[in-house]
């Protein structure tokens, strides 16, 4: 495995986004922040000879510090925040009985598909920014305030399993704080390549910690990386917040299949919801056609472009054989759920750092400040100004 090659030999071959990252890390006047998506920590180890699905958040935190990042935060924290906003939005739509079914909006490939092919259905799309963008805007506002740095000096990087996330970070409207929410997206593969070229032996690193408070997360935030994970995380919180009664079990196994389209009826304390989960963009058109014709009576639908969600994203480590790909993505998915079940904190609304964030900075979910910073009108924002190579 190529993990000890000296950096100067390869520096000339660094491409666009990796070059930009290195320039930011070398600039002493810049404060560099990084966030890591849930699906990255169950795949990055593969590039360094670890088995499929080995969970490596601690090694990831250490390796990012070795690269020179000033703060290492976590997209999982922002996933918990997304659930607070998206759950509140779902409950508001249910109360008014409008804009149903509500579609999730955390997959930029799906958002673009809807904009291009079914623009009349855009009012169904949640106005929430994705966890990547919510994390980005918070790091440059609340986070900058806590760290005592000027937001203009902050360079915010997201490590993602997804090439579409590069497009998302460059969309118009992703700058409601007055600064770009996220400055740069690096994929899992690009990070692995950079670590190898820097001679950082990932597999042998000691476990580090994420910086607090923007690195604290619940198991619900962690399962965002799998198909059905956003739905499960949202239901764990919204059903409990709507009824005041905890769920019998937070493990909603009936949402966890791998079929391209699956349906579930959910009941909790008299609240009844019909939900749909789409895994793989090729499965969405028949459903959207039915919604257009008024023949689908869903309340909430999760759509992810990739077959098993972000664990199988286009920026993840590649496998040679199709059978290896299936094995790898299944192992990554199982690792996310194992991580969730091993955590004490399983629900986004119980994350004490999220509660503190609302108390100290945001106010309430869907409040004025939250709406301004964390939501976007996707119907109005269709342009991308990116120049990625
Ligand atoms: Fe990106 Fe695929 Fe995840 Fe969508 S499902 S956000 S395209 S990795």
From TrEMBL:
Record key words, sorted: Iron, Iron-sulfur, Metal-binding, Oxidoreductase
A GO MF label: ferredoxin hydrogenase activity
Entry EC no(s): 1.12.7.2
Residue stretches spanning the membrane: none
Top-rank taxon: Bacteria
Record's protein name: HydA1
Whole-protein coverage range: 76 to 464 of 464
